[in-house]
Amino acid sequence: MHTRREILAGSLGTALAATACSPRRDDRSTIRIAMTSDVRSLMPGGNPDSTNGTILQHIYEGLVAARSDGGVELMLAQSVERSPDGRTYTFVLRNGITFHNGQPLTSAEVVWTWQQFMKPKSRWPGRTAFNGTQHIDLTSVTAPDPRTVVFTLAKPSLVFLDALARPDLDSCGIAHPESLRDGRWKRPIGTGPFRFDNLWPGEATELSRFDGYQSRGEPTDGLTGRKTALVERLRFVSVKDDASASLALRSGDVDLYFDAGKSTAEDLARHAGITVVSANVAGTYHLILQTDDPVLRDPRVRQAMNLAIDKPRMVKALYGEYAQPHESFVTATSSLYTERMKHGLGYDPARARRLLREAGYAGQTIAIQTNPAPKDYVAIAVILQAMLRQVGMNVAVQAVENASKVANFQAGAYQATVLFGAPNVNPVFWFERLIGSKAKAPIKVWDDPAATALLDRLLAAGTLDAQRAIADEMHALWLQDAPMLVWANRVTVTAYRQNLKGYEPWAGLRARLWNVSLG
Amino acid sequence: MPVANHQRILLRFFVARVAMMALTLLLVSVAVFLLVRLVPGDPAAVLLGEGADAESIAAIRADLGLDQGLVVQFVTWIGHALRGDLGYSIFLGEPVLPLVLQRYLVSAPIVLVAVILAVTVSVPLGTIAAWKRGTGVDRAVVTGSTILLSIPAFWLGLLLLIFFGLQLGWLPVVGYVSLRNDFGAGILYLILPIATLFLHEIGVLTRMVRASTLEIVGLDYVSHARAKGLSEGAVLRRHVFRNAFLPTWTLIGLVLGNLLGGIAVIETVFTIPGLGRLLVEAIFARDYPLIQGCILVIAASYVVVNTIIDLVYPLLDPKVGLQ
After folding, report:
1. Which residues sit opposite B107 in a β-bridge?
2. What are phi and psi of B209, to 5 degrees?
3. What is the DSSP-derived secondary structure letter of residue A68?
4. Do B92 and A238 touch (CB under 8 A)?
5. C-alpha distances in angstroms, A83 versus A80, A158, B225?
6. How far apart, in whole angstroms, are the C-alpha atoms of residue B36 and residue B287?
7. How far apart (Å, rounded) are the C-alpha atoms in residues A55 and A101?
8. Interface of B with A in 216-245 (CB under 8 A)
9. Which residues, at least 6 apart from A357, have a Cβ–Cβ distance to it below 8 Å?
């Protein structure tokens, strides 16, 4: 005989289970993705954060898009022609493309979008990639007819299309002017396979399938090729806490936990019904060394630091089986990665000590800046500290909050800093970020005229073979200068429930949910 | 005391309190304005990412008015604030005041319900424990409240998530539904965060009530009341409870004030889009207008709650006047 209390408890449990569980376990039309941060901008390329990009790359598409190896394919453009002088690129748009609001895509929207990008008030992070600050100086974007767009540059550039395709700028996605309300990006309207439905700040962002989407027919590669929305909705849930995200995945509240850390992924992999996948990303795990610092100015000290690090041991400790040791600044995912780049300075503590003696290193403190979260950032600094101490270096770890660390980096106010930027599938833009004069821009890492000359040659190289040969030379120079300490190619580890079909991580990091279904 | 005189004192008390509140908020706004700018880091730099060059950062700083002198920035901000305009969030691009109030209305019900429940349970619990000092009941209450007090709120929250969300599957693990959109579903998402806060605050309040009651039951007038032949219940109700409750009442004000702006950890664990999380995110992003707006609202609620606590004091203890 059940008591009244037992009956009441049972009824409450059943009622709660029925109301709370039915939407999350029976709903096969919505993929729910746990993301660690919120949407910060609804403008294409408006924020380099991977959560922002993951969401916006489903809404917007650019004229061209990037493959996993950094190559470029057409997307909204049917064709592109480069003028003989290399200064003009003429795009013809595909027929029949419509925006999510039903309006047809014409050259007018392309011109309008680029006007927004290049307005200083827009605060578009990609503006300096096109305004002559770096290699490309875009002087005009014009629309001679509704299907033709002409981009004119001040000087020729062989990497203009690559810049347009940059995933960290959301492929310079083309937006409809109605995306802007009261001068703000409130309701993004693009041409991608999913349309924006709702944003609840701090909570979730929801997209729904765009039935009018015109997919390309080529095989999917990176952000290029065929894209089919196989589910009705995508719901990106903002879950800041790692433990909560893991529990949500195990309970079925979310279907995919994007870019989970190594220890979380290892734990999740032990649970039935959870699949963990990983892939190399177009970036490296590294320590940036300040080559202007009185102690680190001598390249022998920097080489010694590289030689003091047992990379395989460090990689095993930090990333388990998910990552492999890697010693080049050229990422393993890039088309410029060659056999020579598999060989770095290696691990040689005896040589490290000798180099330190020759450089006159006398135990001066070297501070490694890192940030307390995510937790592996501190682990990185502590492991580096331990290994560097073994060759007699006096290393301190400074854990500062991320915004302070970034500000210090931008001002050049650091000795060594653990800082990884957004992945660049095309390594040329990574090289552009690294190489240059610190006097002009303190954010530059590798300040060597020889490296700058090699970068200029690379930017002017017409063939992949020529680019690879130059990249090999850069790698050799890199080992001498040692402005950074690289120990692994960056990886992304994602966990998902086994009913999710077709998900693949890729070099561009940001989760792709087209061609993905719920079984 | 004549009624007119009493009303005059009450009015004077109110005016003094409101003036004090305005002064407190002004001081808080000055302090916050200066402190957020002393912290290293730049909103323009965070906005553009670590690869941004100095020229772009400078352009955005100028656009945000951050290139102006501190005094000019403060006068501009306080001028707008006095007209109810706390500016725009740098990152979210939304007006600060509605944003902050919207998030406040998410956090406040959680805190209020949890604290009301905690008071309802802990006051009788603490009183009984003190009354039955040294017995098994007292030991059980002290042990239970100490355990609840010792468990960090985030850990308690995770334990509840594991048990009710994962093991039993009764309640959702992540997500949030506004009560205005769907009251029934919204309640389900609030049960665990409220339960976590409730359990944690029970520990604090029960110990406080027990300690205050113990202090009172040892006094002579309580023995005298017993000697007069009053029943134990009457002694407890008439002579002990009212006096013992005063320190607890003060603590309730402090707890409420603290929690109304400070449940960021609970909000993070349960993915609640509340004010605490908004403030933490604003700090990480160096979103100056948003940080200032959040802290101003938190400070205002702290001051209002404690003013109400002070106003109720004379009702609980006639010895406390409206000085």
Report:
1. none
2. -65, -45
3. T
4. no
5. 10, 11, 103
6. 9
7. 18
8. none
9. none
Question: Given the DSSP bridges, would you call strands A233-238 and A30-35 parallel, antiparallel or unpaired?
Answer: parallel
Nearest Cα to Cα of residue A53 among A195, A202, A171? A171
Query: Would you state the structure tokens that stand for residue A281, as one six-digit string?
Result: 């990303």
Q: CB of A119 within 8 Å of any CB in chain B? A: no
For residue B184, the tally of other CB atoms under 10 A from its CB is 9
Q: How far apart are CA A64 and CA A62, in angstroms?
A: 5
CA distances from A493 to A30, A427, A457 (A): 22, 22, 36
Phi, psi (deg, nearest 5) at residue A138: -85, 120
Exposure pattern of B238-273 as b/e (b: 16+ CB <10 Å)?
ebbbebbbbebbebbbebbbebbbbbbbbbbbbbbb
Residue A442 backbone zone (phi > 0: left; psi -120 to 50: alpha; other: beta): alpha
Which range, of A419-433, B38-52, B88-102, B163-177, averages the lowest pLDDT?
B38-52
How many contacts, defined by CB atoms under 8 Å, are there between A and B?
161
Chain B nearest C-alpha distance from A30 (Å): 14
| B274: phi then psi, degrees, rounded to nearest 5 | -100, -175
Residues contacting A226, CB < 8 A, separation 6+: A215, A216, A217, A218, A219, A220, A515
Res A472 pLDDT > 90: yes
CA distance A175 to A59: 9
Query: Are the beta carbons of A409 and B46 separated by less than 8 Å?
Result: no
Given a contact cutoff of 8 angstroms between Cβ atoms, the answer to whether A178 and A41 are in contact is no
The C-alpha of A240 sits at a distance from chain B's nearest C-alpha, in angstroms, of 6
Residues near A497 by beta carbon (within 8 Å), at least 6 away in sequence: A249, A252, A255, A256, A273, A274, A275
Residue B95, both tokens: 């007006």
- The string of pLDDT tens digits covering residues B12-56 is 877 887 888 888 888 988 888 888 888 777 788 777 776 677 777
Asked if A9 contacts B157 with a C-beta cutoff of 8 angstroms, the reply is no
> What residue of A is the nearest CA neighbor of B62?
A121
Read off the pLDDT of residues A154-167 as tens digits, 9 standing for 90 and up: 999 989 999 999 99
pLDDT tens digit sequence for B150-186? 999 889 999 999 999 988 989 998 888 888 888 888 8
Query: Any CB–CB contact under 8 A between A43 and chain B?
Result: no
Partner residue opposite A19 with nearest CB, options B39, B188, B285? B188
Residues from chain A contacting residue B184 (CB–CB below 8 Å): 19
Looking at the DSSP bridge assignments, the partners of residue A33 are A236, A256
User: Can you tell me the distance from the alpha carbon of A101 to that of A195, in angstroms, rounded to the nearest whole number?
Assistant: 9
Q: How remote is the C-alpha of B320 from its chain's centroid?
A: 25
Residue B171 touches partner A, C-beta closer than 8 Å: yes
Closest CA to A401 of B182, B171, B286: B286
Measured in angstroms, the CA of B116 and the nearest CA of chain A are apart by 23
Model confidence, pTM? 0.86
What CA–CA distances, in Å, run from B62 to A127, A183, B56, B81, B117? 16, 18, 10, 21, 50
CB B39 within 8 Å of CB A404: yes
Structure tokens at A470: 């130059």
Q: Do B175 and A204 count as a contact with CB atoms less than 8 A apart?
A: yes
Amino acid at B39: V
Q: Inter-chain contact B158–A244, Cβ cutoff 8 Å?
A: yes
The H or E element that residue A217 is part of is: none
Cα distance between residue B286 and residue B306, in whole Å: 30
From chain A residues 361-420, the ones with a CB under 8 A of any chain B CB are 400-404, 406-410, 419
Side chain identity at residue A89, one-letter code: Y
> Which residues fall within 8 angstroms of residue B301, CB to CB, at 6 or more apart?
B104, B108, B257, B260, B261
Q: How far is residue B297's CA from residue B100's CA, in Å, rounded to a whole number?
A: 8
